[in-house]
Amino acid sequence: RPTSTSFIGLGRMGYQMALNLFSKQHLNANEASFIVCDAVPEAAQAFCSEFTSQYPEAQISIASTPAEAAFASSKIITMLPSSPQVKSVYNESIIPTLRKLHATSSADTLCIDSTTLDVSVAREVAASVVDTGAQMIDAPVSGGVSGAKAGTLSFLVGGTEECFIQAQPVLSLMGGRIIHCGPSGAGLAAKICNNLVLGVEQIVVAEAMLLGQSLGLNPAVLASVINSSTGGCWSSSTNNPVPSALPDKSPPCERDYEGGFATVLMLKDMGLASHVAEQYKSPLPLGEAAKEIYEEVAKTPDLANKDFSAVYRFLQQQSG
Ligand code: NAD
């Protein structure tokens, strides 16, 4: 009976989440064993090197395919870019393996997908997983790379009450708040609505910070006013896009907008919101405008893979 925990997708978020999860599982239960997998083999190798340098006695291995990881695991966590990757990793690799595994043994596999993707794709994939006899929840996250590193992410969970209870001890090793939003797909619905707010807010904070400086305000003074007033929000208080505007040096703007939430991923999330809004005929005037702005930012040389707060740099370039 498979017992390892697998983590598939060791990008900006997954790497930090897996580091927290595996470290705590290892410290809690010395016999725990771990598997990592990424389409870029160097990402899995870099993770293993870091993990084994911290815990030389830990049992960790690299799977060359998600199917190989699934074959040996009772818990599978995926953190992939979006719908196409989740579809291919599950439909072509994990689900056929689960089908074989559950047909021949008393395996009891739980799949946790933390990717932000289309609600209907997530529901279809979860239904196919359940069809094999395994279980699945959608558990997208909020809190960014800093929250992933600190182990303080919020998990927004969609799935049955039983799966939620089963997943809680795993999620609590990577996050601070774990919220059961409803049945399959509900975690993603909540995540898409949250990122709609975030995407719009980050643009308006960039606009205000730029305008304030044009009016002669010191960015640090303006940021402290916004952050202690009614305009305060995460985009200003934690992810302020202007270097030196915050007392701490943690926002991505302090590292040339590297290492945060890529503009292309924010554009993807605005696209997910736009897609469901159209399906359900829910008006999205600001969301659509924000999506168009991120489209422009993503087309700007060098900005597509920078943190989405680089919208500030885009507006700066617009202002000449
Ligand atoms: P990323 O692009 O840095 O990481 C994705 C990883 O998946 C990469 O390492 C890639 O090689 C791997 N991958 C792609 N296809 C694969 C496959 N077929 N098999 C195995 N591995 C594969 O993205 P990220 O920033 O870590 O974001 C991951 C997800 O989390 C996205 O859905 C994003 O919207 C969401 N998210 C990101 C943030 C953030 O701040 N970065 C915050 C909240 C949510």
Automatic annotation (TrEMBL):
Segments forming domain 6-phosphogluconate dehydrogenase NADP-binding: 6-182
Cellular component, GO annotation: mitochondrion
Domain (3-hydroxyisobutyrate dehydrogenase-like NAD-binding): residue spans on this chain: 185-315
Pfam name, any one: NAD_binding_11
Annotated catalysed reactions: 3-hydroxy-2-methylpropanoate + NAD(+) = 2-methyl-3-oxopropanoate + NADH + H(+)
Molecular function as annotated in GO: 3-hydroxyisobutyrate dehydrogenase activity; NAD binding; NADP binding
Domain of life: Eukaryota
Swiss-Prot/TrEMBL keywords: Branched-chain amino acid catabolism, NAD, Oxidoreductase
GO biological process, one term: L-valine catabolic process
Pathway entry: Amino-acid degradation; L-valine degradation
Protein family: Belongs to the HIBADH-related family. 3-hydroxyisobutyrate dehydrogenase subfamily.
Name of the molecule in the record: 3-hydroxyisobutyrate dehydrogenase
Organism whose genome encodes this protein: Crepidotus variabilis
